[in-house]
């Protein structure tokens, strides 16, 4: 019977694998926009990261379905894995839009949003690293994620406002508005993951 009871550490390892993967995707997105030498190649690399994320999410759900004992609430494990998967999905979706809309050159605001996404993912990674150990340290990283989301919201809002003031081509306006909003939604998903982590801390304090 004891052999059927899982070791808590496996879930934590999978979550750490997931955040490592997300950080790599965010780093690739930032590099893609910073250099913009070969955006198609960059997007393919990000797509590979997104596929890897799907596989890790599948592993977490499979383990959840087979586990009698879990390190924290099943609902929170499922919600956290879904939120983390959403982050890499939106990083991928952001990169796709630069290719789909034949963007010749990223704007300064797009680069800034990619930088904020990377910082948010790194903060989520630091929070997840404390699962199973020092839960009290998770909150400080979640606060950082919330602040970064607010900053991304400001950058996005100002970028779209400037777009409506300066862009004369309605097609370009629609394209860039969607790009900015997709980038900003990635930080929203980081905040969702942070909120779930804070909930885990409250329940297990």
Automatic annotation (TrEMBL):
<dbReference type="InterPro" id="IPR018445">
    <property type="entry name" value="Put_Phosphate_transp_reg"/>
</dbReference>
<dbReference type="InterPro" id="IPR052912">
    <property type="entry name" value="UPF0111_domain"/>
</dbReference>
<protein>
    <submittedName>
        <fullName>Phosphate transport regulator</fullName>
    </submittedName>
</protein>
<dbReference type="InterPro" id="IPR038078">
    <property type="entry name" value="PhoU-like_sf"/>
</dbReference>
<dbReference type="Pfam" id="PF01865">
    <property type="entry name" value="PhoU_div"/>
</dbReference>
<comment type="similarity">
    <text>Belongs to the UPF0111 family.</text>
</comment>
